[in-house]
Specification:
By secondary structure, this protein is mostly helical. The protein is built from two helices and no strands. The protein has helices at residues 3-27, 31-52. The chain is elongated.
């Protein structure tokens, strides 16, 4: 996670803290509000832990190589005997 992503996380947690504070003001010491405050504190603890000791980054798999086929006209003889397997052309006559 980059520094800007951590800063965004901190900002979002701050916004969430303001919302939960507004709920506390409006609804008082309700069980639901207390659970939200507890969840918020857990989120703050997890964000701090992540910032100070981030887990190892996941190495992504190499993407398969894309093979581009030109739009130019092909020689019909290059495709003689080719199967239409998987193309959904069951009603058309097979190639020779």
């Amino acid at each position: 996670m980059t520094r800007s992503e951590i800063a965004e996380l901190r900002y979002a947690v701050g916004q969430l803290r303001q919302c939960v504070g507004a709920l506390r003001t409006h609804y008082g010491d309700d069980n639901t509000v207390r659970r939200l405050e507890n969840d918020l504190e857990r989120l703050v603890i997890d964000a701090d832990e992540f910032e100070h000791t981030p887990p190892a980054e996941v190495v992504t798999q190499r993407q398969q190589e894309t093979i581009y086929v030109p739009d130019a006209k092909h020689q019909e003889q290059d495709w003689l005997g080719a199967q239409d397997e998987g193309l959904g052309f069951h009603s058309r006559p097979r190639t020779k």
